[in-house]
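One chain shown below:
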Amino acid sequence: MAARLPARPVSDLWDLSISDGRVASIEAHDPRAPRLSHLPGVLDASGCLLAPSLCHAHIHLDKCFLLQDPKFADLEIERGDFAEALALTQKAKARFEQDDLLRRGRQLIEESIRYGVTAMRAFVEVDADVGFKCLDAGLKLKHEFEARCEVQICAFAQLPLFSGPDEGKTIRNLMSEAVVRDGVDVVGSTPYVESKHESVQQNVEWISSLALEHGKFLDLHLDYHLDRAKEPFVWEALETFKRNRWVEEKGKMITLGHCTRLTHFDNEEWSRLREAIGDVPVSFVGLPTSDLFMMRTNEDVRGTLNVPKLIQEHKLQAAIAVNNVGNAFTPQGSCDPLAIASLGIGVYQTGTRTGAEILYECVSNRAKAAMGLPAAGIEMAEGDPADFVLLDSAGPEWRCRKRLAEVVYDPPEVRKTIKGGHITTR
């Protein structure tokens, strides 16, 4: 009751009713009507902003909090580059066990829910070192939190599939077993880690075919570099998707993460990319905290995709996400998607109200769309999923955020998370 809604005048308050996990009605609030907040199932918003819930379109569940966990205290950052991050993570993975995977993963999901998250794509690695340890923990957490957060599990090959030890055969065999596990929603890989171009091609062809064969979403970490001399692989990847007839795979999105090489594109190249994508269900996910920490450049390039520009100027599907929390790839930041949106104000230099609203969408309905999930837009209407975050303020009334732009400029600490019409914040 008595909630402010995005895309509506800030002076107006609204009452929403929920039925079967969806918005049944939205009616103007009558201030003369008796307060019903004492009744079960009634939430008095007290004039606070009720907005579509938040979403992690891309977050690593198994590698979180490694810099804080006492078990990995000796694995400190000394150089802060990609090679070191990879080496430190491999050392940590050699010590992974169910207890710490569940402890750290559970903490990440709990913190995310408190921030307003109702859905996430959680990456868990599969390789010869960890086997199915990360996947087993991820699937257990998916089941544990299913009533409070939709945890979309991505079985992920971080290491090469066609180069390295035994030319990647072991990892391919493990991934072939992982894809048929109950609860695995997505398969993914990192083609850029392969040692030669031919292996990159094989990687994308194999993992996309695996996804298609088993009806899974596909998520690739692609073109994660800033080398102008190196032709981006996105062109060949798109040809692979078309050849494999992804357009006919209704509802199964392809997500391309990082893609930092594309920051060198000019408007002509972006137009060419939009045309090349055509009807292929591709969405880009920018990962600014990780990209800005890992990508070194002396040029006037910020090292991360300008997601608002992709959306506004190039009409591409895109979102932004947290990616890593508390590890050598991304030591800074938290589980809060709004912190990423707020960071975007400076990174993308988009301080307008419209720009801030797009950034909110990038960690809300656009993020859910990248995962292939239904989502309420900021207009909010009858029939939308009843997945919300109530954005409150611990300060005086005038500090209560009344617009999405205010929420992005200065994210409030006090929030209530609602999934399917039920409060999930503990």
Observations:
- The mean pLDDT is 92.
- The CA atoms of residues 147 and 156 lie 24 Å apart.
